[in-house]
Fold NAD(P)-dependent oxidoreductase.
Amino acid sequence: MHIAFIGMGGMGQPMALNLLAAGHELAVWNRSKEPTQEPVARGARACRAPDDVGTADVLISMLADDDVTHSVVVESGALAALKSGAVWINMATVSVAFTQRMAQLCSDRQLRYVAAPVLGRVDVAAAGQLNILAAGEEATLDEVQPLFDVLGKQTWRFGELPEQAAAVKLAANFMLASAIETMGESAALVEAWGVGKGEFLNMMTSTLFSAPAYKNYGAMIAEDRYQPAGFTMKLGLKDVRLAQQAAESRNVPMGIAGVLRDSYLDALAHGDEKLDWAALATVSARRSGQKK
Amino acid sequence: MHIAFIGMGGMGQPMALNLLAAGHELAVWNRSKEPTQEPVARGARACRAPDDVGTADVLISMLADDDVTHSVVVESGALAALKSGAVWINMATVSVAFTQRMAQLCSDRQLRYVAAPVLGRVDVAAAGQLNILAAGEEATLDEVQPLFDVLGKQTWRFGELPEQAAAVKLAANFMLASAIETMGESAALVEAWGVGKGEFLNMMTSTLFSAPAYKNYGAMIAEDRYQPAGFTMKLGLKDVRLAQQAAESRNVPMGIAGVLRDSYLDALAHGDEKLDWAALATVSARRSGQKK
Amino acid sequence: MHIAFIGMGGMGQPMALNLLAAGHELAVWNRSKEPTQEPVARGARACRAPDDVGTADVLISMLADDDVTHSVVVESGALAALKSGAVWINMATVSVAFTQRMAQLCSDRQLRYVAAPVLGRVDVAAAGQLNILAAGEEATLDEVQPLFDVLGKQTWRFGELPEQAAAVKLAANFMLASAIETMGESAALVEAWGVGKGEFLNMMTSTLFSAPAYKNYGAMIAEDRYQPAGFTMKLGLKDVRLAQQAAESRNVPMGIAGVLRDSYLDALAHGDEKLDWAALATVSARRSGQKK
Amino acid sequence: MHIAFIGMGGMGQPMALNLLAAGHELAVWNRSKEPTQEPVARGARACRAPDDVGTADVLISMLADDDVTHSVVVESGALAALKSGAVWINMATVSVAFTQRMAQLCSDRQLRYVAAPVLGRVDVAAAGQLNILAAGEEATLDEVQPLFDVLGKQTWRFGELPEQAAAVKLAANFMLASAIETMGESAALVEAWGVGKGEFLNMMTSTLFSAPAYKNYGAMIAEDRYQPAGFTMKLGLKDVRLAQQAAESRNVPMGIAGVLRDSYLDALAHGDEKLDWAALATVSARRSGQKK
């Protein structure tokens, strides 16, 4: 299968390398050139521009957000350069509204659109152990499943409409943000009574909450270790906002999402935009006067 | 060690049976008589009244809340009947303010107070696998540790002040309630986009959130299975309120706690007070018009 | 009518003076003696203790909260000293639960209980221009109406059950706190875009919001003038808590009340407990980084 | 002064008629033709299309939202048809981000942009008694002040940057929505204790809250009178969202705005989108089980 892969960021590059290692023919593009060097060294063709996708059967994009994806894939002409019947797999976290528009656009152009955002950070991507949240026409999903099998350890299908996977991914990130805020509020409560947050979180994440999300973020919160950022506060706010938009367009009130939004804004107003999004947990400490 | 155990409810009775099985001499009391029959059949002495605690070295109480504990242990004369130097281990979930008052009362009467609320439901208590959250003077904790070793699989110590364990327990229940509400809001979001909440929650609790709390409550939410109640909505609200009170007395804002409180009230206003507290997750569905 | 008036605080003393000026026979008591001097100089009898209420037909109390009222009126023996058929008019802001208990207590003792909390600060009390929010048996209200006519410009009756007036008063204070928080959030929003909050609030309180509550608190917020406190932050939080309790016991979710509670706690955690409760408006400024 | 007035809706038409009555030369346009008949009957010229603005010195637009304004004023060519130095006065409620973009666009094209949203509904517009919230270059504001004097009773200037007036208008609508929600929560509280919401709101809006906003909406809430809608729930949500966006782009947490958003969504999910936005007050009644 001829694949064009656009977006060699922290996630995209190791994913592309895995596809190369599995024997796929790959053309790659990235805004800055440096991240394409390793894939090219391992046999990928470097695209001169996004629209130099050649005869790709599948275009995979892994870009920052709606706007960047639109600019690089649509406005640049990459989509227009695809041959009829090709598949665009968007693996980034984008809005449901954007997903709906892109699915329509592909349909209008005799292309097929698959939404396949992922769970997992850079190391998980490198290990080919992502959880892939996919939605699109079943036959198309079957067709690209071999690629998902290279990139992830499991593919979860959520329906025929690409926006369904987008909604699932936003709900997943909402759950993570809520877990972080919840640990932050709990930590502030026990600290106020003289119990170390580390002791508390260690107990919780060793018992009822012994899940990767809690263990990972719980340890960061216990140690106040928010740099380097695996995923920034600014991106955390963006994803909460996208979850709220997805909810708003279907009249779903989400009380905790509103709390998260305000906590993120509080943190950004205090200069924390580049910290890891686990730093959301520091807002309760500051509000309660435990941290200056 | 001579032990008096007051409160043979769903949790208390199996705990008492475990102590008997481990060879401890036990006197038991319960408001209604039926639950004391099995412990008595296994060798416990039945107290005629709470103040018939005899020469107990240790009084363990496992009662519903602050008021019941005060009524049964203090007003009934049980505490006054203890000999000087005896230890009262309160294993129920009570308020930090009540804990502080009881610790002071014991201190005034040459008694020793230990707060040791637990994590785990009835089956876990029966298996002697509770997580015990203890606070009190270190020497006293050392002294009663053999009892904890019978009742639980692990004892976590949180300080010399009994209220520290009370605060930890309330923070733990807050985290559970937040997890339930978070799953409820997420479920409403994905359902609004046509994704089954069961599929979504199965994926989440198989991956990032593969912890007992999420697996257990996630399955109940997925199946709308809220009866029989392991822990009722009414008790859920009570514990959120206690967490808020503990937070308020130390000036800790907890945004999510406010959301939880309102969701519980919404549910109670709709007649759900006897359902399992996982039914908190249905509030988002009702508010978004997905459930009548 | 023989009146005993307990509580010569900022509100109580001018109210007592107005009753004296209207020709009523008055016995007064206050924990500290100084505030009773002026009423005594104008003809009031000084009680030696709360239970020295003599032959009073009516006992009026104006005390800080539930606990002080219980201590001074009930525990001290004042209530027990009243003759059968006497009326206790509680004009303070207390909880609905306390109001219910006091009404029951009076009923048990052949006394009559009237709840009559007021709207208006010290200067309004001095001018006899209070708005009196009354509830109790209609015949009793008719009987004491002449006293209300001296103390206030208007009496609003809200039912036969004293707790109804208590609930109304708590709802009124909730509306005030919400107005303050709303102005605080709005002020932070416009300031963030370079518009002076004073200009904004002046416009709003000159047009759609030209009400005493907004003009008064709007001016304080515009000028950051929170001292001397007419009503402290600590009392503001107390009243929001009482409103939440009144709501909780009837299963009424109040989303804004939750926001208010957290804002108060945030302010108290930053040392503002003695400021006027209008300082609630500063929390949004601090959270958004506009104020250090 | 030659004026082109685009948007003959409920607000725009009476405003245009007032300008005609004051002797101004007017060209009018509206998507549907009927609303232009009365202005034309009174001497206005009917534009064939938005770009038929002729030699207008001033273009006034009063359109539904960002998108309609962009479509009718920018995409249609109206703006491009204006002569250099002309002034575009946008009197609608639009986002701050859109306001910034339009101001830049005008600046690029040697046009001048004034933001002048208004407070007041249709009857106030007809009476020429609007409050006009203006921002733009001072000299330009001076130049168009005579028009504002015809349309409103007072013009409030908030700075040289048009977005400042946009932010003020959104803050004003936020304050209105908060007042409605606050009355709704209070009404649910007192009703839960058996006090009629009408009695309560009448007292409040006759005393501390005797402002037009409270009297107007308080009466609607007291009577459950939400039709015909002066301003719909859907538009209410839109404006809260715009306030949240304006706040988010400057890192301002607004706790009450989050509550409002969820209340609106709850109402829309229950089919109330066409009711007057005062129907926000019914959400608390429904959540507390007082209304089915």
